[in-house]
């Protein structure tokens, strides 16, 4: 069956029951696999007739391997490798494969040297200007098509109302349900305009937890009324807007499961009951990765988890690891009508996505620089102080310090083009020396570049470094620019700073925009999308 002839009515009679069940499976594919591993996946595709693949960078970078601390190898040619692998796997498949990837902030989430756009939390700081987010969605979709990808498993519509959340945080548009909803709708509209599928995640809401579901099962202990008012609100609005698919997370939500602590991804009450019946979703339901330890560790019998996830209402079984056994269990246990319903939904989704990709292809990657500049200008947030405070600060003798990045950065370079500052680098070995050198310096321009985007280990800073930062803020006249996750401000005594600006990203373009703000060339218009306790 040729891709241009991908038709549900023909497929309904042409595919065997085993092939139809195979179409519901979406195993992981890794860009940096060995030849032996590639051939093994080709064999799986041929023998089990899986319906699609979800691409990841490498086995070492998969989230469930974090605790193993496997080395992630940098591959400058990942994009070309990805394209070749997609073509190779398509050749191995009897029917066209539906190709998926997590590209929440662009292909750069998984692939080196590809366009990177801002994290959701950055977009959450933008007041209005939804047209910019729509444009970003279009660009990301075009990049997906350039690679041969049909399905972007994004956006995240979790409301991040727990500052200790270890895995969502910066991937969420913020803590306000309306802000999350309007930004997500704009993102989806941009993607849909270019014919690339989307998936809102992680149903029924992964924001209010301090557990990473890659490693354990989070508990959301809220009433159904609370969930409907907050966590479920964006999902309902996106469903009403006609979103392509919903990804179900691995979460324990007793209020939606008749008091049971069963994971949502294997809960009939949550998927068939809440999502399908009460919220009226008619599209494709995809599971979060079934290798995640929130569920995988609890089902040691091969194929059992795959069957339970399907029986609960998932149409697509993502990152299933026991496909042959899962197909066998589904064929044994499921009603024919149950298989046919899921097959119809998945095949029609595939039919639409591949037809669009065939009729409107794209071969070139986007240039994110101009759009990122606009997003940077609209998101930059003055958390403390005023523009007048910063301009008055400039009239003093200033020492400029960068923490977490080399002193040769775009932020300082752009400022130095018009002004002359004393600039001192800092590292863990020079803290004492720096303190001595700053004895006569009362005015400090402090640029902080958190070493990691996730909150573990104080965003990559030592306690000694945090103590130095707070000593400087308490003892000096400090203007601070934060190029990273705004939750980092939890560790900073911002009340004692003269001014604090949140830039959110460390991209060169964001640093250049921040320099223009410091120089007084525009006023900050962003609004912090989360609360700092």
Explain what this protein looks like in three dimensions:
It is a single chain. Helix 6 packs across helix 7 (177-193). By secondary structure, the protein is an alpha/beta fold. Strand 7, helix 10 (268-278) and strand 8 form a beta-alpha-beta unit. The protein has 21 helices and 15 strands. The strands form four sheets. A six-stranded mixed sheet has the order 10-15-14-13-11-12, with helices on both faces. It has a four-stranded parallel sheet with strand order 2-3-4-5. A three-stranded parallel sheet has the order 6-7-8. It is elongated. 41% of the residues lie in helices and 11% in strands.
Brief description of this entry?
The protein is of the alpha/beta class. The protein is built from 21 helices and 15 strands.
Alpha plus pi helix count? 21
Largest sheet: 6 strands, mixed
* Uncertain segments: none
Into which percent range does the helicity of residues fall? Answer: 40-55%
How would you sum up the global shape? Answer: elongated
Give the strand line-up of the largest sheet: 10-15-14-13-11-12
* Multimeric organization: single chain
User: By helix and strand content, what is the structural category?
Assistant: alpha/beta
User: In angstroms, what is the radius of gyration?
Assistant: 24 Å
- How many strand elements? 15
Mean residue pLDDT: 93
The fraction of residues in strands falls at 5-15%
* N- and C-termini, Cα separation: 58 Å
Descriptive tags:
533 residues; alpha/beta; 6-stranded mixed beta sheet; 4-stranded parallel beta sheet
